[in-house]
Amino acid sequence: MKTLLQINAGIQGEHSQSSILADKLAEALLSNAHGCRHIKRDLSVNPIPHLDHGTFQAFADPAAAKTPRHKAGLALSDTLIAELKQSDTLVLGSPMYNLMIPSTLKSWIDYITRAGYTFQFSESGPVGLLQGKKAFVIIAQGGKFLGTSADLETPYIQMTLGLIGITDIEFIYAEGMAMGPESADTGRQEAFNKISAFSL
Questions:
Q1: 139 backbone φψ class: left, alpha, beta (φ>0; ψ -120 to 50)
Q2: pLDDT tens digit sequence for 12-51
Q3: Count of CB atoms within 10 A of residue 8's CB?
């Protein structure tokens, strides 16, 4: 059975533009994928804790998890990695906050990026262990940063997913969402038009 993993990172929950678009994309992908399992995480409802030193040590050496907090952090990391490993497709809805991804999404990335589990070091550098997956990334921006030096989000997501072996990435943008109603409508419609072309 195929599995689609959806991560919504907008802090406004169901009112987040990136989350609305991610929901639409997941719906479009699943519409022709009969029997596909759908795992959805809304980080505005269940945020991932920021990584602390003790939890990070436990990632490398599970026996180092001594406190309830660190044991819980290790267990959460194991769960998030298991979800990612069993998925064939990743849908990631991310707004741009202050030129970068939300901190809750950074926490998710911190918890799923673990040496020996999702990537490993080799003589030539890190090698991703989650190859063969497809990722769709929806980025909603208040301004229009695509193609400029201010678009730090696109290369960061590309590099972090690439580190764990996910290199087949389709980016979908909704730009100008805070530049007035007409601009927001145009940005949404352009994203919807692209979403309508996808299926699994």
A1: beta
A2: 888 899 999 999 999 999 988 788 999 999 999 999 999 9
A3: 28
Would you state the torsion angle of the CA atoms of residues 157, 158, 161, 163, taken in this order, to the nearest 10 degrees?
-120
91-122 per-position pLDDT tens digit: 999 999 999 999 999 999 999 999 999 999 99
Question: Cα separation of 132 and 183, whole Å?
Answer: 36
Higher pLDDT, 2 or 198: 2
CA atoms of 181 and 7, how far apart (whole Å):
27
Name all domains of the chain by residue range, CATH numbers in brackets: 3-195 (3.40.50.360)
Q: Tokens in use for 73?
A: 């952090």
Q: What digits encode the pLDDT tens for the residues 170-189?
A: 999 999 999 999 998 899 99
> CB–CB of 113/119 below 8 Å?
yes
Question: Is the sign of the CA dihedral 163, 165, 169, 174 positive or negative?
Answer: negative
Long-range contacts, 61-68 (Cβ 8 Å, 24+): none
| Three-class SS of 88-113 | CEEEEEEECECCECCHHHHHHHHHHC
Stated pTM of the model? 0.94
